[in-house]
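# nightly structure sweep
# worker-07 picked up a monomer target from the shared queue
# config: single-sequence mode, recycle default, output format = structure tokens
# input follows
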Amino acid sequence: MNSPLVIDYYSDVLCVWAWIAQRRIDELKQSFGDDLEFRYRYVDIFGDTQAKMAGLWQQKGGYEGFAQHVQNSANDYEHAAINARIWTQVRPTTSANAHLILKAVELVYDRQTSIDCALMLREAFFVDAVDIGKLDVLYELLASKGLNPELLQSCINNGSAIAALMNDYQICKLQTIKGSPSYVIDGGRQVLYGNVGYRVLHANIEELAKNPQQEASWC
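# output follows
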């Protein structure tokens, strides 16, 4: 039995392009099934949203300008609903708390549960305008899905969750990940970044799935 092709998928839960990309990920999973495995990692894009707005977006309207940018970005994607309240009224201060909680979920439960929870948190923010930057809100959301907040808190208290998150952030630096979302394929030989279309993703994955090692390099 051949091992699945692994894609290290780097994203920030507050990134609209990662929200848009979710449909493509779902379609890829359906197309390739067990031959494809997504390994979720997190990148620091919205670690400090106030600094981001004061810096990159200060001359573009600040939070209001960024909110309009998010709305415009998703206009062409029917599957990526955007609540008009995000960034205008609901302004998470950081994505790091959500990333930390998701690492705790992965350690306490398993990888797939963490992946499912990541989608749930994204939906809570982009669709329902829930502030997922707040720890108490995150615990409430996860508890509503049957997860044990005390077990997750224990994982955070002993440092294992933050260690796992810092490992993701350090790997991002080592692999010079440019942003969210990023797809690292074939052990780092290929990196696709940003709003990559489904056909491009499918074609690259299909080629590697047919020739996983034989044509990796002629040198």
